[in-house]
Specification:
100 residues, Immunoglobulin-like, four-stranded antiparallel β-sheet, 8 strands, 5% helix
Amino acid sequence: MIGHLDRIDGTHLQGWARDTAAPDRPVTLLVLLDDTLVARVLANAYRRDVEQAGFGRGRHGFAVKLDGYIRRGHRHVVDILREPDGARLPGAPWTIEPNG
C-alpha cells in the first residue's frame, strides 16, 4: 500500500491510500485512536493532486472527523490500517499532542 496522511489535528484527518496490488480498487481503511477503532473509511474520494502525481484516476482520498473522540489536554495516537490485512498507511502511527 502507498499513501500519505496530509492533515491530522484534534478534529480531522485526511490523506490518500492506494493498494499497489489492486490499484483501481478503493482501499478500505480502519482508523484507530489509542488502539480503539473509531472509523472505517473507503479511500475513494477524488484528489486532483494524486491523479496529477500519476496515481490512476486520483480516486484514493479519504477524510475522517475526529470530533467527540479527542480529549482536550491528552496525547493521542492515531493509526491507519488497511482492512483486512492490517497493513499500515506509510508513516503510521501518528501522535496528536495535548493542546492545553
